[in-house]
Amino acid sequence: MKYFISFLIVSFFCCTSHLICAQQLVVTSGATASNSMGSLSYSIGQIATSSVSNQAGAMIEGLNQPYIIEDVSVPNTVSLDCAVNIFPNPTSNNIRVQPDGCTDELIYTLYNMKGQMIITRSTSSGECTFFMGSLPSGGYMLKIKDSQNRENNYKIIKK
């Protein structure tokens, strides 16, 4: 009986393996390269990996590349004098913004990639939370400005 159940389980997985769907990932870029030897599809910004190994060697598929919050301010503007933590980025619901060392009132403005203002807020406590659950997936820009017109801009990715 034990062997029969094992046989059924193995048979089930063998017969249904063609129905398994590929993983879906949020990636920032990628392409496909091909030549007479074969083809290779790759993407940048994957957050999943898997590995395959045999007697001939081993291969790690995918990347485990962290997303980096980078300031994308325009040159010749004066930047804020404080560090800003934005998390989680990428996000699917809320984004938290925690400036460290800012004493002025801050104005937060979230724009879509068309330059349309989506949300604007001001706070003197510094910390701010944006609900992005109802916004479509894509890229957004967060502008943080203080009372002296110093500003920083950050890329936000909505899954």
Structure, described:
Helix content is 9%, strand content 46%. Strands 8-7-10-11 form a 4-stranded antiparallel sheet, with no helix packed on it. It has a 3-stranded antiparallel sheet with strand order 5-6-9, with no helix packed on it. The protein has a two-stranded antiparallel ribbon with strand order 1-2. It is elongated, with a radius of gyration of 23 Å. β1 (29-35) and β2 form a beta hairpin. The protein has one helix spanning 2-16; strands spanning 29-35, 38-44, 49-54, 57-62, 83-87, 94-100, 106-112, 117-123, 128-131, 138-146, 151-158. It folds into 2 domains: 24-32 and 39-66, no CATH class; 83-158, Immunoglobulin-like (Sandwich). With 159 residues, it is mainly β.
Number of helix segments?
1
Structural class: mainly beta
How are the strands of the biggest sheet laid out side by side? Answer: 8-7-10-11
**For the record, what CATH class of the largest domain applies?**
Mainly Beta
Unreliably modeled segments: none
How many distinct domains?
Answer: 2
Mean pLDDT level: 76
Number of strands: 11
Estimate percent helicity: under 10%
Cα-based radius of gyration, to the nearest Å: 23 Å
Question: Under CATH, the topology of the largest domain is which?
Answer: Immunoglobulin-like
Q: What's the end-to-end separation, in Å?
A: 47 Å
| CATH architectural designation of the largest domain | Sandwich
Which outline best applies?
Answer: elongated
Main beta-sheet annotation: 4 strands, antiparallel
Beta-strand share of residues: over 45%
